[in-house]
Write a sequence for this structure.
């Protein structure tokens, strides 16, 4: 059973960079390029571990970051000693990237306010119904509530790291479980317990391939609107629940 | 008396026209059909809108993209979804909304320009938006290769319940033409030299 998860859910390299910057509360005008480059590359390798094809744009950005890093290490080329305070914007190799990031941040803000309006509008039904019948396959950000895919990736990385220890203990390999099976299991678990922590899903997982299968199953369930992921507390644990359950919370009858 | 009666009749007719129209109907079309001036039509419709609002009905008349149409009240949404037994319309994907936001605020704009802003290919979201008639071609840019320009449609306004592009939410520090801001910053930097 081979599942191909579409990379569309990751909005691109600028999206990832913004996530890294916002997560560490980094000043966008003064990005520590070496640290960010390392973190960026770590993410790329996680994506590759998930067997997802890394889109060309991500690699181009990796190259750009490394180029900027190299430029910043170089001594100033025109060190003719005219002015020492010649550190204006044009000189900073990061400037072009910073401008792009700021502009992309604004686009995200604009998109967010459009989405808010859209969500209100979607509650209104018209007599001439069926305007957008082909919505079912659209990737569902609503199901991620206040989360981004990157937050899920963060949670996944934590589980991945804790597994390294567990791996040493297990000796007898278990039969491999398909993504479809995993999806059924996780859905049943969420239905039974109403609310399940993200970590809990990975509780009985002890091989890397199983872990990845499990993560892809969660992503696929979210995509199919079967379950919902949310984070009640900022930087807290991520929880999975059923859609119906969430509706009840939102609209008490 | 008779003018009052006429007004009641006109109001009922307009209500019926909005109800019967398969598409949002403009005040101009209504005026042409019943033969009264557009200004009066607009007044009667805002009266109707107010009637529905005041009596807290489950339906309302909505004005968007220069047309009027009947719609349900948003608070009834949960129950209508139960009736339809289809999954709630979840809206556009993140990629599509971002692409649409760029076009809405920066139109007319080429595909290459959108891609440079998003940092990824917009081939697929652009196709989705065109298919849904939320955007359309707006001629070609006078640049090498004469690339196609894109802009938003009336359907875009209706989808978001807006009357014009002026109603788009304002983005802080976004004047609609960011180059000006960046240029002025650069000029300041130069002036400081």
């Amino acid at each position: 059973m081979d599942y191909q998860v579409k990379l569309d859910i990751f909005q691109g390299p600028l999206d990832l960079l913004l996530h890294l910057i916002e997560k560490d509360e980094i000043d966008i005008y003064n990005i520590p390029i070496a640290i960010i480059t390392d973190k960026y590359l770590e993410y790329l390798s996680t994506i590759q571990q998930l067997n997802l094809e890394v889109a060309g744009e991500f690699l181009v950005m990796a190259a750009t970051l490394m180029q900027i890093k190299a430029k910043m290490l170089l001594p100033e080329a025109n060190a003719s000693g005219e002015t020492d305070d010649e550190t204006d914007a044009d000189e900073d190799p990061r400037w072009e990237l910073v401008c792009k990031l700021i502009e992309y941040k604004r686009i995200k803000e604009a998109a967010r306010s459009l989405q808010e309006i859209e969500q209100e509008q979607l509650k209104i039904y018209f007599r001439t119904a069926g305007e957008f019948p082909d919505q079912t396959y659209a990737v569902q950000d609503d199901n991620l509530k206040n989360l981004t895919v990157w937050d899920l990736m963060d949670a996944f990385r934590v589980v991945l790291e804790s597994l390294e220890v567990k791996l040493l203990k297990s000796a007898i390999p278990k039969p491999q479980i398909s993504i479809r099976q995993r999806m059924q299991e996780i859905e049943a678990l969420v239905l039974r317990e109403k609310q399940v922590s993200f970590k809990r899903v990975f509780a009985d997982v002890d091989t890397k391939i199983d872990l990845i299968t499990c993560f892809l199953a969660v992503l696929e369930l979210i995509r199919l609107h079967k379950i919902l992921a949310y984070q009640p507390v900022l930087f807290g644990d991520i929880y999975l629940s059923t859609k119906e359950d969430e509706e009840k919370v939102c609209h008490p009858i | 008396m008779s003018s009052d009666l006429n007004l009641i009749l006109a109001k009922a007719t307009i209500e019926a026209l909005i109800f019967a129209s398969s598409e949002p109907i403009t005040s101009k079309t209504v005026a042409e059909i019943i033969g009264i001036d557009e200004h009066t039509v607009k007044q009667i419709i805002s009266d109707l809108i107010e009637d529905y609002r005041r009596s807290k009905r489950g339906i309302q008349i909505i004005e968007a993209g220069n047309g009027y149409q009947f719609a349900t009240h948003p608070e009834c949404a949960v129950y209508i979804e139960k009736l339809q037994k289809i999954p709630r319309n979840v809206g556009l994907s993140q990629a599509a909304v971002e692409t649409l936001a760029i076009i809405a605020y920066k139109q007319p704009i080429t595909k290459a320009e959108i891609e440079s802003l998003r940092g990824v290919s917009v081939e697929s979201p652009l196709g989705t938006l065109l298919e849904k008639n939320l955007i359309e071609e707006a001629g070609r840019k006078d640049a090498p290769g004469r690339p196609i320009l894109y802009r938003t449609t009336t359907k875009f306004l209706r989808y978001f319940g807006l009357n014009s592009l002026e109603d788009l939410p304002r983005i802080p520090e976004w004047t609609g033409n960011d180059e000006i801001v960046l240029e002025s910053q650069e000029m300041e930097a130069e002036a400081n030299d």
Strands of chain B lie at 59-64, 67-72, 109-110, 135-140, 148-152.
